[in-house]
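Same chain as my last thread, 247 residues:
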Amino acid sequence: MTIAHQLSQFSFIDLAALALLIGGWMWMGWRIENPHPERPSVSVLMADFRRDWMYQMVTRDPRIFDAQLISQLRQGTAFFASTSMIAIGGGLALIGNTEQLAGVARDLIQDNAPAFVWEVKLLIILLILSNAFLKFVWAHRIFGYCSVMMASVPNDPADALSYPRATQAAELNITAARSFNRGMRATYFALTATAWLLGPIPLMIAVVITLAVLYRREFVSRSREFLLDLPAQHSDTPKREHSARSE
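reply #2:
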């Protein structure tokens, strides 16, 4: 059976739903990481607070709080990485039993699609989960780099290396957080992709809902308003929006 014949088992609406899933995932990630300067996302605002954290660390003695906090961030990435691995293992096991899955689908949604269709749908979910796993692992590693860099920051604020080292640690912290956030978004869209098992229309609806939830959390949530009430000191984010809202 040729690849063209196998792909012909998917309808146009199936392909459109898949394109919406991938396109929505990519667009949302770009929108969050590259927002309009006058309307920053929560992720961008938090990056400024991470810089403030590293600058405050220079004068904090002892730095037990900073060590505990970076350790908790690493534990969080390790937890999600291990969870992704478990989900990937479950998906691989399910691919080996697609005939049973097809039978359940026939009973629940009256879908007579062949096993190949179910395998592809599961494979899409696994690919997105694999992306999430790699992002979490990379975030965990960079948080480790950040902890080493934090340890290299001199205790004396007057030392010429103190604030340059703190800046380096901040950028590593921000990079790790960016990778972690990408892993979280991949997890969201992997869960969204499971709706394809019910059909292309449920997938489209799930993508729209996921995009709406992510957009609200990053751009119109209460937590974002709290962050704007007193922006980070080491921030390049314009204060125009906050000023207009206060007036």
